[in-house]
Amino acid sequence: MIWHDLQDPNDPELDVLAEQFHLHPLHVEDCRHGKQRAKVEEGADYIFVVLKPVHVTEAGEVQIDDLDLFLGHDYVITVQAGKCPTLRAYMDQLHATSHQLRVDQLFYKIMDGAVDTYSPALDWFNEAIDGIEDTVLETPHRPRYSAFFRPSAV
């Protein structure tokens, strides 16, 4: 089992791998252009998957990245676009044990790690919503309506 883990979609190694494993040019283009929808597509003798790992930056912005995977009979190619630190740490950790895994097991673990990136982002949203709720309950005030929206008189 071979795992090629590219951290830059513009890495020239992707072109070498595309030729070696007969990857469809549109799948390679999807890796390079990013911002694809999450999807699963069949290639000639591999499966192509786009996952959407998520993280919240220190500035409080939600960042949605791309993780592209090619699953072949005896190889996995990952192409990570973006800098999701949670996923990168997990992938680096996974490298230590990947030689003991079958290709399908590695594929599953990578997908599981990408899905796990949603938990910290969801926790952040929960805390933000709790903060808004606390503010509203502690300092209620009558809302001001714009000239375009007035509640109907009863």
Which CATH first-tier class would you pick? Alpha Beta
Number of strands: 7
According to CATH, the homologous superfamily is CorA soluble domain-like
Helix content: 40-55%
Instruction: Let me know the average pLDDT.
Output: 89
- CATH fold name, please? Beta Polymerase, domain 2
**Which word captures the global form?**
elongated
Query: Gap between N and C termini, in Å?
Result: 71 Å
> What's the CATH architecture?
2-Layer Sandwich
Biggest β-sheet strands, sense, barrel: 5 strands, mixed
Please tell me the total number of domains.
1
- What's the Cα radius of gyration? 21 Å
Q: Runs with pLDDT <50, length 5+?
A: none
Strand order in the sheet with the most strands = 1-7-6-3-2
How many H/I helical runs? 5
Q: Briefly note the structural class of the backbone.
A: alpha+beta
**How do the helices and strands follow one another from N- to C-terminus?**
EHHEEEEEEHHH
Descriptive keywords:
154 residues, alpha+beta, 5-stranded mixed β-sheet, two-stranded antiparallel sheet
Layout of SSEs?
Layout: E1 2-6, H1 13-21, H2 25-33, E2 39-42, E3 47-51, E4 54-56, E5 62-64, E6 66-71, E7 75-81, H3 85-95, H4 103-116, H5 118-138
Parallel strand pairs: 1-7
Antiparallel strand pairs: 2-3, 3-6, 4-5, 6-7
Notes on the protein architecture:
This protein has a single domain (2-132), classed as CorA soluble domain-like (Beta Polymerase, domain 2, 2-Layer Sandwich). It contains five helices and seven strands, in the order E-H-H-E-E-E-E-E-E-H-H-H. The protein has helices at residues 13-21, 25-33, 85-95, 103-116, 118-138; strands spanning 2-6, 39-42, 47-51, 54-56, 62-64, 66-71, 75-81. The strands form two sheets. It has a five-stranded mixed beta sheet with strand order 1-7-6-3-2, with helices on both faces. A two-stranded antiparallel ribbon has the order 4-5. The longest helix is centred in the C-terminal third of the chain and has 21 residues, at 118-138.
